[in-house]
Amino acid sequence: MKARVFITLKPGVLDPQGKAIHHALDGLGFSGVRDVRAGKMIELDLADGTSDGEIEDMCRKLLANTVIENFRIERLEATA
Amino acid sequence: MRAAVIVFPGSNCDRDIAVAIEQVTGRKPVMVWHRDSALPDGTDFIALPGGFSYGDYLRSGAMAARSPIMGAVSGAAERGVPVAGICNGFQVLTEAGLLPGALMRNAGLSFVCRPVSLKVENSQSLFTSAYDSGEEVHFPVAHHDGNYQADEATLDRLEGEGRVAFRYLEEVNGSARRIAGILNDAGNVLGLMPHPERAVEPAHGCTDGRRLFEGLLETVS
User: Fold this and answer.
1) pLDDT for residue A80
2) Cα B93 to Cα A62, B77, B130, distances in angstroms
3) Among residues B89, B76, B82, B81, which one has the least CA distance to residue B48?
4) Residue B197 designated active-site
């Protein structure tokens, strides 16, 4: 069973990397970009039966720093 | 002083701070490996050194903050033992929840490595008693993630309670209110991005950092 954890900076938290990406997109002529926020995605390969609560616990204890980041968990259907 | 220096995989200022501590106190600190779960009996100062623990993977200091030894460090901090986290050590302390806020990527995105001017904002702490309040000092910085951020309420509280220990006198990394170092609410835990241990002997070009260890020695003993 796989799950993906999406980690994003909380709204209002300064994102220097997002700003630099935005600047680079501007430089390439993509003028319609209003804002860029960079985050990360972590893919977990989990034992069957791992509960949502356990994945949330992983996020709170290590994967995200909840002072500055939000997380969202997406379970992937098992592929046969 | 019975100091302990915590060594994580990827620490690289552990020897520097051990030498600084020994030069000032006359006693070698014990080097404690991150996998240990206890500190030596009678430890009265804990240093978390600079470096790149776990290669800064995930977030700087994130994995080190969950090391077995950090339980003992937190316990000692709660009992009032002085704890100083320098550079990566500061990142570890925020990740461990022993200090508020977070250290993010430098605003300019560049690694910054140079001596910087700092103002001693609070000369009443365990770590800064040998400085004058408002004094200008020079310590080197060497970091990529030194941009201190916290919400406005936390920043106001830090300022109001005299918990901003050091402030940059110049733009370095985009830190909120140019904060370089902070104290916990009890005043026994210091996090500081610049490196006082790299400014302790004349060969370093500056000895401003020496008094941090001298002041600590005086208050601890």
Assistant:
1) 47
2) 14, 11, 24
3) B89
4) yes
pLDDT digits 0-9 by tens, B203-216: 999 999 999 999 99
Q: What's the average model confidence in pLDDT over B22-37? A: 97
Domain containing A42 — which CATH number? 3.30.1280.10
Mean pLDDT computed over B51-64: 96
Of A17, A61, A65, nearest to B105 by CB-CB distance is A17
Residue that the structure tokens 């210091």 belong to = B190
Chosen from B54, B60, B99, B105 to mutate, greatest number of chain A CBs within 10 A: B105
- Beta-carbon separation of B150 and A67 below 8 A: yes
Q: Which two tokens stand for residue B66?
A: 């969950």
Length of chain B, in residues: 221
DSSP string, B77-136: HHTT--EEEETHHHHHHHHTTSSSSEEE--TT-S-EEEEEEEEE--SSSTTTTTS-TT-E
Q: What number is the ipTM of this complex?
A: 0.84
Question: CA–CA separation, B61 vs A55, rounded Å?
Answer: 21
Q: Residue A40: which domain range?
A: 2-76
The whole-angstrom separation of Cα B96 and Cα B66 is 7
Total domains, chain A:
1
pTM, two decimals, is 0.94
Which domains can be identified in chain B, with CATH numbers? 3-220 (3.40.50.880)
User: Which residues of chain A, if any, have pLDDT below 50?
Assistant: 80
**What value does the CA radius of gyration of chain A take, rounded to a whole number of Å?**
16
The answer to whether B170 is a known catalytic residue is no
